[in-house]
Structures are given as structure tokens and as C-alpha cells.
Amino acid sequence: WKNELQEKEGGLAKFAEGYKIFGITRDESGVTYREWLPGARQVFLVGEFNGWSNETPLTSEGFGRWAVRLPDRENGTPVVPHRCQVKVRIETQDGQWIDRVPAWTRVAWQDHST
């Protein structure tokens, strides 16, 4: 596994810097959402921004990584605005569907009304 980690991730030190690439990361023209889900069959980013529907699929990048690139709208506003509620929807290898809070979420709050 050490050789595979070196080959796929650039070594243990680089792998430990996952916070730089996983979760929702922003650049000058949009966001990328990336998650490590080695046992997933399908993955979608769902939330208020897309009506909680399976219309934002992630693509497997190999080695358990899944990602989707979301360019900003033409007017420069993000597709997933700040404070937008999101979850990751996962189809497991046995066909079950699971919704969960993304593992690399940087900001979360509890809704005390639920």
C-alpha cells in the first residue's frame, strides 16, 4: 500500500494535506467539490442550490476520489452560494442510497428546529 500511496498521492506527507483539495475548494472561476469515497458506485452533490436533486454528479478520479467542477454563473456568482445547505448522496456497492454531510465540510451549524 505504501507504493500505491506514493504513486497515486505523491507520498504520505502530500496525502496528509488532503484538506487543500477535498471538500469545496474555490478558485478564480468556480468551485470544485471532491470527496474520498472508495466504496461508492455513484455520487451526487445535492442541496438547496439544485433542489436536492441528483442533477450534479461527481466523476470518479480513481483511488477512491470523486469530484465535480462547478463554474461560476455568467454574472460571476457561485453556483453553490455561501451558507447553502448541501449533502453528498452516495449509492453504495449493494445499491443502498445514503445522504450525509460532506466529510470535509468547513462550516456547519445545527438546525434546532429539526
Summed up, what is this model?
With 114 residues, this protein is mainly beta.
Task: Give the arrangement of secondary structure elements.
Layout: H1 2-9, H2 12-15, E1 23-27, E2 30-36, E3 40-47, E4 59-62, E5 65-71, E6 86-92, E7 97-100
Antiparallel strand pairs: 1-2, 2-5, 3-6, 4-5, 6-7
**Class derived from helix and strand content:** mainly beta
Quickly count the helices: 2
The largest beta-sheet arranges its strands as 1-2-5-4
Order of helices and strands: HHEEEEEEE
Termini Cα gap: 43 Å
- Could you give the count of β-strands? 7
- Gross morphology: globular
- Give the mean pLDDT: 92
- What is the quaternary state of this protein? single chain
Notes on the structure:
The chain is mainly beta. The chain has helices at about 1-10, 10-15, and strands spanning about 25, 30-35, 40-45, 60, 65-70, 85-90, 95-100. A hairpin with a 2-residue loop joins strand 1 and strand 2. The longest helix has 8 residues, at about 1-10.
Please give a handful of descriptors for the protein shown.
114 residues, mainly beta, four-stranded antiparallel sheet, three-stranded antiparallel sheet, 7 strands, 37% strand
